[in-house]
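debug: dumping io for the single-chain case to check the tokenizer round-trip. Nothing else runs in this session.
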Amino acid sequence: MKWNKARERATKASLMSQAKGRIDLEEFVEWLWEDFGIRVRRSWDDVIKAVVDSDEVLPQDLAAFMISMGVEPDEGAWDVVPVARGVRGPREPEESGSN
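debug: decoded output
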């Protein structure tokens, strides 16, 4: 369950990065209020936080809204893998000093 939630948040964040600046901020604010009852201040930071943190707004909802506004979501958004904060990927093996 936790993995699915993290993946959903990462997908929504990826979609929002695609939509930011390509869809009018007022349209986002109106959509969140009319479709989900979510009231946000008119700022991209607040809209992004509301969408990503909401259990109500699904990535599919966001993608459908983007399409309705003329923005084709990049399918790569669904391939996003969440990364835990403070965790790094595997280190490159160090070269051995043997001669």
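debug: round-trip ok. The mean pLDDT is 83.
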